[in-house]
Amino acid sequence: MIKFFIFLLMSSTAALAQKDTVRQTDLKYGNFERNRLDLYLPPDVTPKTPFVILIHGGAWVQAGKEYVRDFQEYLLKQGIASVNLNHRYANDSTIHYKQILEDIDQAANYCVKNAAKWNTRADGFSTAGFSSGAHLALLYGYTSSKKINAIVDFSGPTNFTDTSTLNYCIKANLMGLVEKIAGNRFTDVKHVPESFALASPITYAKNIPTFIAHGVIDPVVQIRQSQQLAEKLRSKKAAVEFIQVPGLAHDLDKKPIEKLALYKAAVAFIKKYGQKK
């Protein structure tokens, strides 16, 4: 009788927990120091609930998950589950796009491993990111062996082989960052390293629903990067929503009204495509 009572108590506690909002921070998903993520689950989450893998910006070399916490909170309020992860920083020697993609895949594996415990989906994730995090969300989404339902890209670089972009990166002193993520040195536009193409999401663009938002006057990542990706995706008959925002530069926080409108549009896109199994 006592064992039966304990069983009922544990069952009711588990049921109660599934009805509560969950915020768990700094969960360790891998072996490296920065392999930490924050888990946010809405009340009554189920395996049909859209689940976003969220990646912060910071030029691949700085910042962390706290910089995109407002979007994670917004997703939560809209009934969308998510993890918001830190990844290893790119450098000049050992950590480039491949190693960071490994971190993201480790985070995805962690979500798969805990799906039954969390009562969440074990496949059909969505990826999302801002700036360099958008680049990673795209690159992982298009190259992962896992089923990715949708991708959300806020102002991400997409094509490191574009001559105009390369010249701009030199002029704006951004080439060192591209070299870090690509893992190779740049000499001139006539001899672009193969790794620049391999590190470019546009190289792998495929028929995955993709939401793209970009400021028209972005001085960090030129809007032509998003224009090129949207064109490539449309040629592959992919579902694309591309919002070009007049007067917006690279930092969404400087345009709060426009930022909220983009968040609403992104959530609608995730709910439309992210629920599929």
From TrEMBL:
<keyword id="KW-0732">Signal</keyword>
<protein>
    <submittedName>
        <fullName>Alpha/beta hydrolase</fullName>
    </submittedName>
</protein>
<dbReference type="InterPro" id="IPR049492">
    <property type="entry name" value="BD-FAE-like_dom"/>
</dbReference>
<keyword id="KW-0378">Hydrolase</keyword>
<feature type="signal peptide">
    <location>
        <begin position="1"/>
        <end position="17"/>
    </location>
</feature>
<dbReference type="Pfam" id="PF20434">
    <property type="entry name" value="BD-FAE"/>
</dbReference>
<dbReference type="GO" id="GO:0016787">
    <property type="term" value="F:hydrolase activity"/>
</dbReference>
<dbReference type="InterPro" id="IPR029058">
    <property type="entry name" value="AB_hydrolase_fold"/>
</dbReference>
<dbReference type="InterPro" id="IPR050300">
    <property type="entry name" value="GDXG_lipolytic_enzyme"/>
</dbReference>
<feature type="domain" description="BD-FAE-like">
    <location>
        <begin position="37"/>
        <end position="233"/>
    </location>
</feature>
